[in-house]
Design a protein that fits this description.
It is found in: Cell outer membrane. This protein is mainly β. The chain is built from 5 helices and 35 strands.
Length: 692
């Protein structure tokens, strides 16, 4: 993409030393130095100068200045975006006695991102030069101390006991500054007098976590396996009564192929293991200060009025700084706590023909308890939503992984295939307010949570056709009018035939129906690996089936195409020229069309809340192709190296899909695809590995 660039340097260091026979010290260190370029760089706009809604037509006059702006080559534009990161871990392990050791590990992640941006007057909304400065800093560290004891008896009994104590702290420190009215020569936030043209804010957030864990593992001659774990974690996000979560688990295994009665079939079934487990995992999704009511220093919200009748857009009151409930965001709840996911899993591992064929199969039932969601509350509270552990969800499914070595072990040419496939069914098991349906999102993009249905089920009007003539529109026998839109305009020829689900001859949100969801039924992939002497080739395919998406990309383009005022909009905007087949649109009475008529729009015919824009999001993708060559050791030894390998990688090579969006994989968690985000890029990578 013109005007977009990224330069990254990522050196790494691994260090290991044994000061004594009983002490081992290791350090892994990764440094990142990044500089990014963002085109016109305006953080107040989208990533591009245009969106799919309102995309300009070929009549749009783009001069030299606009071209330079949109491609990031305008001399007066300044965008200095640099990121420095340090990630690493250090481990020290001391052997107290044979089989007993103490290990301490500290990991750390430090990131500092600074960005200085100067927006010239030709680009700014104020008509003046503007400068902004950003500083984003994160500092996270985690310390774990483990005491590990292992004991094996001659009788075949093996034991392992682990005790763990851990702690974590994360600090965010973000600073934002902006100024309006900068001189052309001053491209940073400086030299502006105090007042409305100068603004600075700073945000600091901290969270911490404390953990304890005990683990017991037992096996007898590798045949019978037992593991029991108990873990408890405390999070500063939550109140003292809700802070701690307990997460036990237990697993059992039987390695049947190690039994004596299995010997006669070992040449065919080389390995067979049955296993089962039950446990509870935790997720800590709340905001850093989830238990507290958040305050803001601005008493401005729609229709806000102070006691004296004055508009509520105040930052000070009688010279004192205003602190006001943050009604823009969801109300807090002191009882919010951990999400808990009890899960049962049963499976087997199978090896055939001396493990030339291996199969792993799993069946699972996972209940996500107390998932954090924001639900609506009465407006009399001042808030529109509140956040708490409101939703329970169940996932059930099966997973298979099949690995085959397709040629004889003695062959110089080797071919290995790894195929995995998974089926998952998810549905909601509990909602607040007695299990009543929970609808969220703006009216044009509504989704509903319903007990017994998957997450994020689409709610839309069902559209089966386009009215060919006025006579095709149902008539209300009470009024003699054609079916109406929200009690107003009557539907006519060329309008979408939205189903009147409740039979009241009026189309409104009560006629919405459940129509697909973004959760896939089947996911999987296949990796084929080939090797011959020093050459290697890996080809990875991935696929998704049984999910839907909401095509905002198509809906937004239609918003420009269908208008009651084409003379005004079809000049500056692309309108029907936006790669549509005009023959698909209704144009005269009697037409059997795919899409509504382009002229007139009395019933919001391009509304995205229609089944027209729900598409099959299944796809097959060539995800990755990797080709490599390793030099023979007889050459590498001559130059003092133990290994030299050259490689090339192609990512996201090709995708096949029935959907019409730019990329069916680039869809958000709710299933919406707007076409205004970065596409999943095709990448070509070339490199080499040297081992000294």
């Amino acid at each position: 993409m013109k005007g977009y660039d990224i330069t990254r340097i990522t050196p790494s260091l691994f260090f290991q030393v044994n000061p004594t026979k009983k002490l081992l010290v290791q350090t892994n260190l990764f440094v990142g130095l990044t500089k990014a370029k963002h085109g016109l760089g305006d953080p107040d706009r989208t990533k591009y100068p245009f969106t799919t809604w309102g995309f300009p037509s070929s009549f749009w006059n783009i001069g030299t200045t606009e071209q330079e702006l949109y491609s990031g080559r305008y001399d007066e534009l300044r965008d200095d975006d640099k990121t420095t990161s340090l990630n690493g871990n250090t481990m020290a392990q001391y052997t107290i006695l044979p089989g007993l050791n103490l290990k301490s590990t500290i990991s750390y992640n430090i990131t500092n991102n600074t960005r200085s941006y100067f927006k010239p007057s030709v680009l700014s909304g104020s008509g003046q030069n503007e400068a902004t400065g950003y500083i984003y800093q994160t500092n996270r560290w985690e310390l774990e101390n483990t005491l590990n004891y292992t004991k094996s008896l001659k009788s075949g009994h093996n034991f392992n006991v682990v005790l763990l104590q851990g702690m974590e702290k994360n600090i965010l420190n973000n600073t934002y500054s902006s100024s309006i009215g900068n001189d052309d020569a001053v491209k940073t936030v400086t030299g502006i007098a105090s007042g409305p043209n100068l603004f600075v804010s700073n945000d600091i957030q901290e969270r911490s976590r404390l953990s304890w864990m005990g683990s017991f593992v037992y096996d007898y001659k590798g045949k019978y396996l037992l593991q029991a774990v108990y873990r408890t974690d405390g999070s500063s996000r939550y109140s003292a009564d809700s802070r701690w979560g307990s997460f036990p688990s237990v697993s059992l295994g039987w390695n049947a192929s190690e039994e004596s009665f299995f010997t006669p079939v070992k040449n065919v079934v080389s390995y067979l293991k049955f296993r089962a487990s039950y446990g509870i995992t935790g997720n800590d999704p709340g905001a850093y200060y989830a238990q507290y009511q958040s305050l803001i220093a601005n008493a401005n919200y729609p229709t806000s009025v102070l006691g004296n009748g004055q508009n509520g857009s105040q930052t000070t009151y009688n010279g004192t700084q205003v602190l006001y409930p943050d009604y823009y965001n969801a109300a807090s709840s002191t009882s919010i706590s951990w999400e808990r996911s009890p899960q049962f899993n049963a499976g087997l591992d199978l090896g055939l023909l001396k493990d030339r064929i291996t199969l792993t199969a799993d069946y699972y039932v996972r209940d996500s308890k107390s998932k954090v969601f924001q639900v609506g509350v009465p407006l009399t509270t001042g808030y529109s939503q509140t956040s708490n552990n409101y939703v329970d969800l169940r996932n059930t499914g099966i997973e298979f992984t099949l690995t085959t070595r397709n040629l004889a072990p003695t062959s110089k040419f080797q071919w290995t295939t790894n195929f995995n496939i998974a089926y998952n069914d998810n549905y909601i098991t509990k909602l607040p307010n007695g299990g009543r349906d929970f609808t969220f999102g703006p009216p044009w993009l509504q989704q509903t949570l319903s007990v017994g249905e998957p997450l994020f089920t689409f709610k839309v009007w069902e559209v089966n056709k386009i009215y060919a003539t006025d006579a095709d529109v149902p008539i209300d026998p009470k009024t003699g009018k054609r079916i109406t839109n929200f009690g107003g305009a009557q539907y006519a020829a060329g309008d979408p035939a939205r189903m009147d689900q409740n039979g009241d001859y009026n189309i409104d949100y009560n006629d919405y129906v459940s129509y697909g969801n973004p959760n896939p039924d089947i996911t999987g992939g296949m990796l084929n690996s080939f090797s011959y002497k020093g050459f290697s080739l890996d080809v990875l395919l991935t696929f998704v089936s049984g999910r839907s998406l909401r095509n905002g990309y198509l809906s937004d383009k239609f918003q420009d195409a269908g208008t009651s005022d084409p003379y005004f909009l079809w000049g500056p905007r692309s309108g029907p020229a936006s790669n549509f087949n005009v023959a698909d649109f209704w144009s005269k009475p009697g037409d059997i069309a795919k899409y509504p008529g382009l002229i007139t729009n009395n019933v919001d015919k391009w509304h995205i809340g229609q089944s027209t824009y729900i598409e099959d999001a299944s796809f097959l993708r060539i995800k990755n192709i990797r080709l490599g060559y390793m030099l023979p050791q007889k050459f590498t030894k001559k130059i003092g190296l133990s290994m030299v390998r050259f490689y090339g990688v192609m990512d996201n090579v090709k995708v096949w899909s029935r959907s019409t969006v730019p990329d069916p994989e680039a869809v958000d968690v709710t299933g919406y695809s707007g076409g205004n985000d970065y596409p999943i890029p095709k990448k070509y990578t070339f490199g080499f590995d040297l081992t000294f």
